[in-house]
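Section 3.1: Structural characterization of target chains.
Under the original work plan, the team committed to producing a structural model for every single-chain target entering the pipeline before any wet-lab resources were allocated. The record below documents one such target. The sequence was received from the expression subgroup and is listed exactly as submitted; it comprises 169 residues.
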Amino acid sequence: MAGTKLDSSADVYQGQLFAFIGEDPIAFASSATLEVSVEEIDISNKMMGSWAGSLAGKRSYTLSSESLITRKEGAMSYDTLLKKMIEGAPIDFFFGEAASSDKDNFGGTFTPDKTKINYTGKVLITSLSVTSEAGQIAKCSASFKGFGALVPIEGSPASVNSASAPAKA
């Protein structure tokens, strides 16, 4: 990439990234975070003099989201996440842009946009919390720990039809 001109007014990503559990977005999310890390394996030895050395070890990822509480039936809400957490089974996730239909200033129907770059894998819900302050909207914080590989997907226009197709069981 040496010599690539970067233009702050045109090249900075301005989209909205969503966290989906299965095919459903976390309802009324105000933030979504995917963090990827790698463990360091120390290879420092006498032959390296006074310099430390490391190799890449195990990779891992976490997913987190902050959202507003809803009791809407069928939404990926605190209550739905809590049921999944109690079940303890691994769940599929999608992190990327959303395609929307019937969208207005207050919401719409959102599905994973598989035509764009996205990330998928399996996670376990590791923590959920609810915050309710006097006179404020109740909020939920959710944390997820990935297991197995995080799969980056380039996306393609051919995926448009599969983005709206129901997930296979």
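Residues 78-87 form the longest helix (10 residues).
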